[in-house]
Amino acid sequence: MTHAHWNQSLLGPTRWQLVCHLRRKPRHVKELAELLGVTSNAIRPHLVSLERDRLVRVSGRVQSGGKPALVYEITEIAEQLFPKAFGLILKHLVASMRDQLEPDDLEQIVADTACRLARLFPPARGSIRERMNYAVEAVIHLGGLAELEETERGFAIQGYSCPLAEAADCNPEVCRLAAVLLGELTGLEIAEVCDKEKVACRFEYFSE
Known about the structure:
By secondary structure, this protein is an alpha+beta fold. The protein has helices at residues 3-11, 13-24, 29-36, 40-52, 76-79, 86-100, 103-118, 128-141, 165-168, 172-186, and strands spanning 27-28, 56-64, 67-74, 145-150, 154-161, 190-192, 202-206. The protein folds into 2 domains: 3-79, Winged helix-like DNA-binding domain superfamily/Winged helix DNA-binding domain (Arc Repressor Mutant, subunit A); 86-206, 2-Layer Sandwich (Muramoyl-pentapeptide Carboxypeptidase, domain 2).
């Protein structure tokens, strides 16, 4: 079953069609009813359900007949239901750069990319634990799943769902990029100790 078919089964055919139509552009109830060939009253309960699940939201109003009609659009959460090719693209991009660049040049590009990403976030402040927690939040914000662990030697960020797993599988530079990013965010020396066989991300800070 494909990603799209799985989401269709999860949401049900009507709600999935509504999400797909709203992904193209915001629409009001009457427009959606006409697209699905049903009545407006048949559409409204599905929109209420989608809104409750934070998959659609009201984006405005338009004149439709005697009174203004609510216009709906999909949310960022709903957008995540659709497959993305970021990991696949990055995988081949890094492989192509490795074939054409000297190792030092590729390392410099990786470091520069990490620094650019780090500038998207405000600087971390506080204790080492607070800064490491901040890095965990950044990983989650970027689409991963991670938690902070306290170790005998310091702290570790353990990842459970890498958004770039497809690229990291055969490109160690991707894990290096993540380590540099975490270091830039925290102002700490972060070591990459990922399990490449299990594609399990792990980054550690060793206290003095």
